[in-house]
Amino acid sequence: MNKRILKYRTIGDKIFDLDGSHPYIMGILNVTPDSFSDGGSYGDLSDVLHKAEEMVRDGVDIIDIGGESTRPGYVMISPEEEIMRVVPAITAIKNNFDIPVSLDTYKYEVAEAGLESGADMINDIWGLKYDNRIADLLSAGDKSVVLMHNRDNMNYDSFIDDVITDLRESVSIAKNAGIPDENIIIDPGVGFGKVVEQNLTVLNNLARIKEELGYPMLLGVSRKSVIGLTLNLPVHEREEGTIAANVLGYKEGCRIFRVHDVKMNRRALDMAEAICTAL
Asked: Which of 73, 118, 126, 168 is the most buried (most CB within 10 A)?
């Protein structure tokens, strides 16, 4: 595989250089009552727009809308309910801000409604394996996709090798549907289908995963349990751990960072970029 898929790519109407040195921030905006960190905070459209405005002011590059909590032990909601949550939020943000919007979903019906409402990208926690019809939607609309590693079991033979193999399967689904390489981003899936020690191992092998697959990598570690359990901290005291993981991830080649606190991570990653690009 060509290890340099494409230097520049478009998400929405913005150009992203995911093969360069610049870190991009994806801000998390969950329109859910039960997400582990911000559940219930943005149930009203005025709250959604206020949060989006804050993110834009703080330097966000993409806003990721989620309508179903995927915290450990989550209860799946119907596509209809998820659509009722995400479509008004997507529409309101696209009508009020010039910012790419990602939709965090693995359900075909939700992806279809979200893309019709203006979403620029699908962030699929099952890497197109839950419903691969989403791949056809993305191909037809020339939209980008984040393929996250996930499993419904933890029966690994050789952990990192298996993570890479699983992600290759997701890439194959995307490419077989006609999604071009330049529209594919991978996510190693910190917090999904892995115990704490395996999550730490993933974070220590990001460069290898990126090198083996050859695609730009998104890192989503913000406030997750791997930080809480490692540092013995509750959800709202995990920002330092988040920043540490993201800065290390930047050094290992990640270029998109999915976070709750845009301002703090923007500053930390901009500093990391300045240090790493100094002559």
From this structure: 126
